[in-house]
Amino acid sequence: MTSPFSVPRLARPLAAIGVAASLFAVSACASPAASVSPKESATPTAASYPLTLDNCGTEVTIEKAPERVLTIKSTTTEMLLALGLEDALIGRAFPDGPLPEDLGGADVPVISDKVPGQEAVLNLEPDFIYAGWESNFSADGAGERADLQSLGVNTYVSPAACQEPEYAPESLSFDDVFAHIGEVGSIFNVTDAATELVDTQKTQLKAIKPVEDVTALWYSSGSDTPYVGAGSGAPQMIMDAVGLTNIAADVDESWTSFNWEAVVDANPDVIVLVVSDWGSAEKKIGVLESNPATAKLDAVVNKRYVTVPFATGEAGVRNVEAATSISTQLEALGL
User: Fold this and answer.
1) What letters, b where the CB count within 10 A reaches 16 and e where it falls short, cover 96-106?
2) What's the whole-model pTM score?
3) Which of 85, 175, 167 lies closest to 134 in space, CA to CA?
4) At 309, which helix (H) or strand (E)?
5) 239-257 tens-digit pLDDT
């Protein structure tokens, strides 16, 4: 299956939001629609339509809560399911792996294992398309955003995946993730659910006891050239939360192509293996153990591996889950 790195590089994290903004609201007055930017928002409020927001530089005006939604990428599907919006989902595409059983969504049809074409998208007659990557919207993909808008279909990109630097902070934070949850809650007029979800996740995050002096490699895919979590995206944010020192932290990207020589030189204490539809943990362990150089790494010799689903390594509702899971696995390894 296509690697996530065969499309334009993952965009940088969510547009800058003040630390005081624990949640993101897009509230608006009655017509004409009020425009709310991330820097102006505070906490989510019940939606007063129409809502106008700046999403990755594209102005989006929402007249009412979307009712026929297509999601592209697992993180977007999971966001809506976590907010209790399964009934609004008419289809999903480009899944990275199975949905968590506790979120439901099993009956939502997968219309494409990759980015769907515009014809397949329009055949569903959606009123809203929620994409995990900005690159999902293209002439060769789901369609250009302006074209879809002209057909009455609103589009929205996970703010952490905006590609232009002016819409991205230097590094993703959990405040950004919580703001994203709040914004989606406002779009769909489920702000109570968004607030409850964020409060729960904040409590879970505070319960994590970080490790000390433990280095790690976040290994997503690749054999000749490893693709790894670098220093400004969700992998770095999650590793910071659990106390791991990322050996690729100096690379100012969410994800990057790395090299095995640097991995060998760093000799990480633990390796985070990303599990996806295109790459199992066993496959990655096989790569590490078959390479004479990486086979001698302390983490490989001592089988100090932890695993995370691919979707948890992109900004979304499962980032806290990933941090909690990694923390538990590190404890089981005696770290």
Assistant:
1) bbebbeebebe
2) 0.85
3) 167
4) strand 305-309
5) 999 999 999 999 998 899 9
